[in-house]
């Protein structure tokens, strides 16, 4: 099963918590927003979802 992390740029506050917590480095900061640059590496652990206080991240299952 594949996972697809999605960041709502309008909600993202640029705190970088998801970048720090992701065990497989899915996210990078671009223009002060989180971007899933390595989405194919996502494990579906939802650590990023839990740490995002803005509710800007969802993980969809493919």
Q: β content, as a range?
A: 25-35%
The CATH class assignment is Alpha Beta
Q: What is the mean predicted local confidence, pLDDT?
A: 98
Strand order of the largest sheet: 1-4
Named CATH topology? Alpha-Beta Plaits
What portion of residues is helical?
Answer: 10-25%
Biggest β-sheet description: 2 strands, antiparallel
Given the C-alpha coordinates, what overall shape results?
A: globular
Structural class: alpha+beta
**What's the gyration radius in Å?**
10 Å
Report the strand count: 4
| Count of runs of 4 or more consecutive helical residues | 2
Give the count of structural domains: 1
- The H/E string reads EHEEHE
Q: Supply the CATH architecture.
A: 2-Layer Sandwich
Between the first and last Cα atoms, what is the distance in angstroms? Answer: 7 Å
Unreliable spans: none
User: Oligomeric form of this entry?
Assistant: single chain
Q: Key terms for this structure?
A:
globular; 62 residues; single chain; Alpha-Beta Plaits; 16% helix; two-stranded antiparallel sheet; 4 strands
SSE map:
Blueprint: E1 3-7, H1 17-21, E2 27-30, E3 33-36, H2 47-51, E4 57-61
Antiparallel strand pairs: 1-4, 2-3
What does it look like?
- It is a single chain.
- The protein has helices at residues 17-21, 47-51, and strands at residues 3-7, 27-30, 33-36, 57-61.
- It has 62 residues and is of the alpha+beta class.
- It has a single domain, classed as 2-Layer Sandwich (Alpha-Beta Plaits).
- Strands 1-4 form a two-stranded antiparallel sheet. Strands 2-3 form a two-stranded antiparallel sheet.
- The mean pLDDT is 98.
């Amino acid at each position: 099963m594949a996972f697809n992390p999605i960041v709502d740029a309008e909600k993202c506050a640029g705190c970088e918590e998801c970048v720090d917590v992701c065990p497989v480095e899915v996210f990078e900061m671009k223009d002060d927003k989180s971007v899933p640059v390595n989405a194919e590496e996502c494990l579906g652990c939802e650590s990023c979802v839990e740490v995002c206080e803005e509710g800007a991240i969802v993980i969809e299952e493919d």
